[in-house]
Amino acid sequence: MAHILDERQKQVSVAGLNERTIDCNKASLAGSVSQRACVFCGSRVVLYPIVDALHLIHGPIGCAAYTWDIRGSLSSGPELHRLSFCTDLQERDVIFGGENKLYASIIELIDKHQPKAAFIYTTCIVGVIGDDVESICRRVEKEKSIPVIPVQAPGFQGSKKDGYKVACESIFKLVGTKSKPYTPAKSINILGDFNLAGELWILLEYYKRMGVHVNATITGDGRVDDICNAHNAALNVVQCSGSMNYLAKMMKDEYNIPSMRVSYFGIEDMSDALYDVARFFNDEDMMEKARQLVKEEFVRLMPQLAWYKERLTGKKAAIYVGGAFKAISLVKALRLIGVQSVIVGSQTGTTEDYELIKQLCDEGTIIVDDSNPVELSHFVKEKKADIFIGGVKERPIAHKIGLGFCDHNHERKEPLAGYEGMINFAKEIYATAMSPVWKFTKNP
Amino acid sequence: MVNTEILGNRTNSSVPLGVRNSLGGRGYTSTRNSCKLCAPLGASLVFKGIEGCVPLIHGSQGCATYIRRYMISHYKEPVDIASSNFSEETTVFGGSRNFITGIDNIIKQYKPQVIGIASTCLSETIGEDIPGHIRNYCETYKGLEKNLPTFIHASTPSYCGSHAEGYYNTVLATIKTVTEYEKTDNSITIIPGMVTPADIRYLKELLDDFGLKYTLFPDYSETLDNEYTSEYQLIPTGGTPIWKIKRIGNSKAVIEFGNVFNKGVSRTKDVGTIQSAGEWLESSLYIKNYQMPQPIGIEASDRLMDVLKELSGKEIPEKHRKERGRLVDAYVDAHKYVFGKKALLYGEEDFVTALADWLREIGIETYFKKGADFETLREEAENFKPDLLIGNSKGYYIARERKIPLVRLGFPIHDRFGASRIHQIGYRGTQELFDLVVNALIEYKQENSPIGYKYL
């Protein structure tokens, strides 16, 4: 495969053809146009949906401007998270230090917006000029009596995934700092759903029907007080494991809260998530309610999905998303509507994720870690994919070579999680695969 | 009436904090919902306007990825920008190794004619010597230099100004690096600034119609608004060829649009010595520079046509004379819809000042403020009470809150389709803008009328 840089050969594998374990968790190669972002980005996207906190970026303007209102993370209350605050460092700040500016900024913004907590993100340049952000945070915390948490996220200190870890550490500083008067025994924390297009609210409805109390949602529609009380839940239910496993692990070590990994995409994984929770609480009534719920949804969904399957059978999809666990759900969900996955890749998957994908996929499926436009365009041609599922950066690649596209990233505006989400997903795949416009691209 | 705050010192782009506070009254130290973007984005846009060029951002991975995402969402085109992927080690020991690997890999994968290198706040702060890196790289290929791409380096730290600074610095850096003088010929050079791909196509048509020989730089009219290709073009077709940029030195005249040029005042060194590309060509190569605001509006477009008449020795071509005539006709037909209305403007200063001049031409009062962020504008809209907003899509939340129309122009437009195809300059562009503004006001009136007229 000549279009793959030599150093990247080991980050590509083919299901069934070889036993080679995929190389991942590597820094992106200089000069390749990686689809990944940086540490700052990772921490920012994870913390962003905490809606009643102040998010202030200590750095130059770009880091703040590009992450302003980036996720469709909805709030049922405050919308402070949708404002972009930045110290907007200038050259003289870089020379003389930005500490005074940072202090003044935090104070004025806390006074104005009265947040429940403040997250202060450091960027590349702050990592270099050496502002003592920690001590300023401690000082403001004392003066204003709210948690002021430094998020140490200089971009160069790793990849987006390292940023997830930084975010988890920041959240963990809140956990256990306050206890609510009463937290029901059968309560869970939802980790790793970001309430894109209101997906969290769909899940809350399911858990409510099962009689499960949801304690803290981390971080979709997140509230500081709920997160502070997160240590009183009985179980952490973790989706998007790439971003949140680390928090779950810390909560296990410190508060002995067990966790389980779930996915809410597709009928199978969604149902398993509900059953697993009921099984955890060992509650027959809860399990019965879960079965009832799944049955109702199943009966409602199957005829609709059958309609799509009939029409979509034979179509081939390429998947390239941020987390590998999501990719796995997508492979299964696509199979449900007759679509075969011929390329499966992610920006941040682990060895275990890729092994799982290998077992799940048909022989010949290309599996790839941290890919780039050159590779992706070759793979889809080689595999004759009809549809590409990815994020905003992959959309124009797909469209330029005449492929349908489904946005399964931060910017989606239709919920794709849960049972309702499965129908939306099928609709979107159908809309892009069956559009009459492809007649002009096939015979240009 | 034009708000006068901006008209003070036009060479100052980013107003120092204290000054902004004294203007803003409320006095915020922090920037709240920034109107500006960072310099490497402007650099990337210029590099996309060079034929066969791959941009490389020398810094962390995030910079390239964010800028790609931002540009892709506006242009709806693939935007490949490579990164030298700084790690902790790179930051401590320097970026030369990443630079070499980066260049090697770009050459291997893309086979570019040009690599445009933009620095970042990180690489600038740790003192990366990018010209030195380039020299060293070329030295290792001594004797084989002909096989190497052309390297262009622009200094674009994010802590200096905005994407507009990055844009202008990179135009200048490219010309300084590439342009040579042999002997003056009959061609002209046109440097249009941050206009749309449709505007670039319009300018080329206009210059062709005047029968002029010209070089337009940077030309991203194809690279960022390409046809359907079916094959993925590693480097999209289009862009100003490097050999043409080389010959800019032979031009008999330069036309450049702009009057602010964001000359990097926030820099501690070089203050007051930074030139626009046109000014540099005039002072160094003695090429007459026709500097003018972006031609938005009849008067501003007339000024452009006058220069083109002078340079070509021809009268304005019939097609364009008629476009002007239709525009005057439209002004007359719709003047009552727009007169006395108030518009809040934001965006790059060269664009905003040109817009303001045009709006004054049709009787719309304007308000804009140098260095202001969106939250400041939102607060000040309380006093100014605009009837509409004109600018990129990021001001939408203010329009939504005030329940007034937003006419989407400039960069970025992330919530509407077809940003590349909006004409903003010349008689043709002014006509398009005029229709947009008039219809936005009519629609507002209609939507808010209890009668629901079908006839307005």
Notes on the protein architecture:
The complex is a heterodimer of chains A (444) and B (456). The radius of gyration of chain A is 22 Å and the shape is globular. Chain A is an alpha/beta fold and 444 residues long. Chain A has 18 helices and 14 strands. In chain A, 59% of the residues are buried. Chain B is α/β, with parallel strands linked by helices and 456 residues long. In chain B, strands 3-2-4-5 form a four-stranded parallel beta sheet, with helices on both faces. In chain B, strands 7-6-8-9 form a four-stranded parallel beta sheet, sandwiched between helices. In chain B, strand 6, helix 9 and strand 7 (214-216) form a beta-alpha-beta unit. In chain B, helix 2 crosses helix 8 and helix 13 (318-338) runs parallel beside helix 17. In chain B, 56% of the residues are buried. At the A-B interface, helix 1, helix 2, strand 3, helix 3 and helix 4 of A face strand 1, helix 2, helix 3, strand 3 and helix 4 of B. Strand 3 (85-86) of chain A pairs antiparallel with strand 1 (31-32) of chain B, so a sheet runs across the interface.
User: What's the helical proportion of residues of chain A?
Assistant: 40-55%
Percent in helix of chain B: 40-55%
**Intertermini distance of chain B:** 27 Å
Major sheet strand order of chain A: 1-12-11-10-13-14
Structural class of chain B: alpha/beta
Radius of gyration of chain A: 22 Å
CATH H-level homologous superfamily name of the largest domain in chain A: Nitrogenase molybdenum iron protein domain
CATH class of the largest domain in chain A: Alpha Beta
- Write down how many β-strands of chain A occur, each being a DSSP E stretch of 2 or more residues: 14
Q: Gap between N and C termini of chain A, in Å?
A: 28 Å
Write the CATH architecture name of the largest domain in chain A. 3-Layer(aba) Sandwich
Query: Globular, elongated, flat, extended or rod-shaped: what is the shape of chain B?
Result: globular
Total domain count of chain A: 3
Low-confidence stretches of chain A: none
Number of helices of chain B: 17
Quaternary structure annotation:
heterodimer
**If helices are DSSP runs of H or I spanning 4 or more residues, what is the number of helices of chain A?**
18
Mean pLDDT of chain B: 91
